[in-house]
Design goal:
- Two copies of one chain form a homodimer.
- With 373 residues, chain A is an alpha/beta fold.
- In chain A, 36% of the residues lie in helices and 14% in strands.
- The first copy, chain A, folds into two domains: 256 residues, Type I PLP-dependent aspartate aminotransferase-like (Major domain) (Aspartate Aminotransferase, domain 2, 3-Layer(aba) Sandwich), CATH 3.40.640.10; 100 residues, Alpha-Beta Complex (Aspartate Aminotransferase, domain 1).
- In chain A, the strands form three sheets. Chain A has a seven-stranded mixed sheet, sandwiched between helices.
- In chain A, strand 3 and strand 4 form a beta hairpin.
- The longest helix of chain A has 27 residues.
- In chain A, 55% of the residues are buried.
Amino acid sequence: MKLGIGNTTEPLPQIVIEGLHEGVRKLGFVETYTGYGDEQGDKRLREALVEYYKGMFVNLDPSEVFVSDGAKPDSANIQSIFGLENIIAVQDPAYPVYLDTNVIAGRSGKFDEEKKTYRGIVYMPCAENNDFFPDVPSKKVDLIYLCSPNNPTGAVATKHQLRKFVDYAREKKAVIIFDAAYSAFIWDPGLPRSIYEVENAKECAIEINSFSKYAGFTGVRLGWTVVPKNLVVEGAEPGKVNSLWNRRQCTFFNGASNIAQEGGLFALTEQGQKECQRLVDYYMKNARIIRDGVESIGLKAFGGINAPYIWMKTPNSMRSWEFFDKLLNEAHVVGTPGSGFGPSGEGYFRLSAFGHREDIEKALDSMKRNLKL
Amino acid sequence: MKLGIGNTTEPLPQIVIEGLHEGVRKLGFVETYTGYGDEQGDKRLREALVEYYKGMFVNLDPSEVFVSDGAKPDSANIQSIFGLENIIAVQDPAYPVYLDTNVIAGRSGKFDEEKKTYRGIVYMPCAENNDFFPDVPSKKVDLIYLCSPNNPTGAVATKHQLRKFVDYAREKKAVIIFDAAYSAFIWDPGLPRSIYEVENAKECAIEINSFSKYAGFTGVRLGWTVVPKNLVVEGAEPGKVNSLWNRRQCTFFNGASNIAQEGGLFALTEQGQKECQRLVDYYMKNARIIRDGVESIGLKAFGGINAPYIWMKTPNSMRSWEFFDKLLNEAHVVGTPGSGFGPSGEGYFRLSAFGHREDIEKALDSMKRNLKL
């Protein structure tokens, strides 16, 4: 039984299916056929995303929104427009792509076998003592990756927490790369779904988001990145980062699939948002079942309230992989060892709410009956 | 009237439309829904591509085929798995992505304003005197970009010409990056559609291809890259490049759209290939009309026989942009100045066969009536 993968399992909302069919249908007639579109995305979709942000009282211009084939490629490629001398800060634990791509690019320095960290990277530990959200770095860094709701901890940054980073970034001329791929899972209206809900964040933050979890598009491939025009970086005029990303996308990318974009448009309609919300609610109910379940057997759990991930402390200070074996052998349940997300993930374990309800219930039931604690 | 853009204009073959609808339909039911797939592509599609190559008497393993969102991203990203010290050779003129991505990566050296070339790049001029296909470089290079059928010249390399490059690459431990995106336009059975039709090419060549022009997928986004397991590079064991590309794709990419892949599968069926061939034939007839048309008014034209591009010599040794203005002002036709593809493109002009028949005919008619030669 799998509680390990961050992969959607439920069919797409009906209106999104209709949108995708519409996208296909258009390709069958000479009057509506389209070939290469703008690398930055269909104008209608960029405008629909601008409208979507208005719902959070965030004003953007369509030229600040870049449609892509998903949040993973964007999180991976965004570093490529910054110089190799930039100092990178990552949350620890974190989604591995931020670190891996900087290692490949050559910004990490050597690996310290003992500490399990790269010497050139600034790690921002996220643990119980800081509610799994870090304080700003004590030294000057240039690029800061933040993910909220967080993968893997399920923690969601408050406006206050984000404001500290925005203030830091503006003062130090650093850039925040804000991964909001799980923002649709925030139901608490007091928590920010976009970093731009924080004043002046447009001067220092790039935001990456996706239709993957919101609309079930993990396989369909559609995401977007916001690069504000008035983003300021050291030694460059405002607008420079926006134009660099535009240049990067135009040279290395040829636009998201026109079918996926048509589906995305339908997902952003009023009806589409309603149906997608039901999909999100389904996974959130799963999350609740998992969190309640693991707590009911005396395990300590975090996240899973405004995020689809439950971050569990392993019992008796077991190492993550030890618990992986125990969970697999005793309860026949697969999860993800926290240590895979960074050194501060050691002793933790990620359970994912993506799955069919009956499978989730079966897994929890097996954990309750079979796990020897 | 536009003869400038390499963008498809005709609706997709019916069977491909059905395949795409099938891809969408599957996402609407829990039994057939799929989320993230393999970064390397759907196994069925990789196997179908292996079958496709068998038609050219080329044997590949599915693990050597990497499905992607198109030939452009692959041509752009392939350089990233090679060290920055590698010397790059490009055909001149060439599709700008090969050069641009190497400039961005930092392999080009300084730009020579006078020669209009980068000092660190080896240019292989393609002109009338070599039938628009270059001889092997006289010095040692590491990465060689070849495109056949060629964009922009429309020239197709013979087996003999490719064999010289394969021999050179094997001797010098260089890697050929072979862009075969227009291979479907080769009707002459004597010309190779894949570089692997040349003996031993798997030891030295990566091949990039696409459904864009073959099946009209410019907007749908689907392509593939072949990285043979026994490709040999200097200082690395066989299999290393395959595993590096695999690592690169798994870190920076999340697979092509599952809808597009389903469409690709249908395009590779027997019926699919037949219908796609009709689409290709349509554009090839356009190419013939363009080539015959420009020749009938006394202009010298190349390509357009086994390729969708016609490479025209400008009249009276005009510069490419001069002729652009003349063609636009006198005949109201837009084409692409050859100088945009490299210094050896100066004095040439690219006309594209992608367009509706009636628009192509109108453009040629206007050229015949209005161009003052």
